[in-house]
Fold:
Amino acid sequence: MGGCELRCSACSVELYEGPDGWAAAVPTNGAVLISAYFPQARFEEVRTNAETAYLDCLRTSVPPLYAQIQGARRADRLTGTGDQRNFFR
Structure:
């Protein structure tokens, strides 16, 4: 796995640090939100091919999670933002 793994058993959140980003798995409404974070400096690169960047982040940061999503059905489209500094929802 990547450099750091954090699991919260009380809330079922998994957070992983990879070589050049982060990935997280968060159960929600019968599905699992799988997110990827990229450094701001990579915005243009990621924006050019978000699908490839997303899957590469999962593959390098969390190989077991990447293996689990092979053949899975995506519930929604990829969304992202290039303005992520101090962004909270």
